Amino acid sequence: MRNLFYRLILSAIAACSLLVVSCKEDGPVTVPSLKVSNNTLSFAAVGAEAQQIEVDAVDVVWDILQDDKDKVWLSAVKSSDDAVVVSVENNISKEARTGKITVYASDNVKVDPQIITVTQSGAGEDIKYGLKVEPTVLKFGASDNDVQEAVVTVEGEGLTWSAAVDGNAEWVDMKVDGDKIKITVGDNMEPKERVANINVVPSMDGVESKILRIQQEAYVAPPSLKTEFTGNPVFPANAKDVTKTIYVESVNLEWDVRVEDENGETQSWLRATPMTEGFSVVDVKADNNTELTPREAYVVVFAPGGEVEPVRYLFSQEAAKEHISTLTDDVDLNGMVNSRVVVSANDEDESPEDAVSGWDIRLWTKDIEYRNAAGRYFGTGAYIHLMIFGSYTPKDPDYNYKIPAGEYTVKVCTLSTGTPNTVMAGKDSNNLTFPMGSWYVEMNDNEFGLAGPIASGTVNISYEGDDHVLDMNLQDDLGNSLVGVYKGKLDFR
């Protein structure tokens, strides 16, 4: 039994011995490590070629680390799993400079990093590098298809440059041809100048960039003159309150008007007034034609500087009528039953000896009515309008007036020249509701019918109690008699 136990122990010892021998036969255990082929590099000041450092990494993943201040001039690029390519910018300073590149194990902090010290020589003397752009500004017209160019001069060996249009100035077309920047521009159709910059950038740090400025003039529309007249170019003989309008549209142009006949002689009876507030127009008016012959004249819209051709419009005016009345027989005025009198009474400070009162008298028959809101008569019948001038009559706030009694004689006058005891004679009128002077007018179903101006005669005014009595003995310009009496109260306004 004891022998069996010893034999088992010996067998176990032998087995362990075999295991130890077997483990030694697998080889040595590897240790993570990181090495570089060179820990120092030197570069010339200018034109130095890139250099490569070999990296020996054992069981580690490696990477590169640099200070930001060194990255400005020192470049280290991991080109493969076992190399770093190092390059430098030209050193235009006379002072040497030094930087560092760290190669480290990114997955094992126990492995020591490798420091590569890079030294670049100074230039000995400061090398001058620079760019010069001539001219610095190119100026173009609004519509300018010419090619303009600027020359870029380089100072310093090895310095190059590039150029680009700054921003979104799509209207600028730029081409680089050797040492020249060639520029063309599109048409500027806007009424303001526009500018753009060409950035000229050097290839070396520390060298100042330059700007080529492009300026293009604002669009200025050529002078032009456009006019329009669509109305009737004929004035009536009585042209009061008649205005005709010429519309004017001008661009970059001063304009004026004149009135002349076919021989270029100035005509004063036709007046053309330029109006430039808001819309530009010419208001054309004519004096009344008292002659029995028509007349004509031109309104000329022109540029005083002669930039455009003048525009001429021919206007004419009808001859004065020998007789205005359309009445065909005598008229009975006894049917007038309604009244309305607009009073122009006198202020207290007016002299009674010199003052004149005005009485705008309207009488009409029963079958027509005057509607104040519409400002006209309606119906079928007749009305007479008498413009009478009386003696001094003070104003009465209660309108309790009496027209001064007496005989009133028809005379040719105006509202400003009428004298007491005068009836203003009728004149050619465009508005028979409110005619010029004194008129008789017939109405047929709301429309004007026969009518005639009061040309001569008298009106005798007297009173019967509170009633006014107007005894009318009148004639039109054809000699027709208009006779009748109005008796009743008057509606003073």
How is this fold's topology laid out?
Elements: H1 2-24, E1 33-36, E2 40-43, E3 51-58, E4 62-65, H2 68-71, E5 74-80, E6 83-88, E7 97-105, E8 114-120, E9 130-134, E10 137-140, E11 148-155, E12 161-165, E13 172-177, E14 180-185, E15 194-202, E16 210-216, E17 224-228, E18 234-235, E19 244-251, E20 256-260, E21 270-275, E22 281-286, E23 295-302, E24 311-317, E25 331-332, E26 338-344, E27 357-364, E28 368-371, E29 376-379, E30 381-390, E31 406-411, E32 422-424, E33 439-444, E34 447-464, E35 467-476, E36 481-488
Parallel strand pairs: 2-8, 10-16, 18-24, 25-36, 31-32
Antiparallel strand pairs: 1-3, 3-6, 4-7, 5-6, 7-8, 9-11, 11-14, 12-15, 13-14, 15-16, 17-19, 19-22, 20-23, 21-22, 23-24, 26-27, 27-30, 28-29, 30-32, 30-33, 31-34, 33-34, 34-35, 35-36
Provide structural commentary.
This protein has four domains: 33-120, Immunoglobulin-like; 130-216, Immunoglobulins (Immunoglobulin-like, Sandwich); 224-317, Immunoglobulin-like (Sandwich); 331-488, no CATH class. The strands form eight sheets. A five-stranded mixed barrel has the order 30-32-31-34-33. It has a four-stranded antiparallel beta sheet with strand order 1-3-6-5, with no helix packed on it. By secondary structure, it is mainly β. The protein has helices at residues 2-24, 68-71; strands at residues 33-36, 40-43, 51-58, 62-65, 74-80, 83-88, 97-105, 114-120, 130-134, 137-140, 148-155, 161-165, 172-177, 180-185, 194-202, 210-216, 224-228, 234-235, 244-251, 256-260, 270-275, 281-286, 295-302, 311-317, 331-332, 338-344, 357-364, 368-371, 376-379, 381-390, 406-411, 422-424, 439-444, 447-464, 467-476, 481-488. It starts with a helix and ends in a 5-residue tail after the last strand. It contains two helices and 36 strands. A hairpin with a 4-residue loop joins strand 35 (467-476) and strand 36 (481-488).
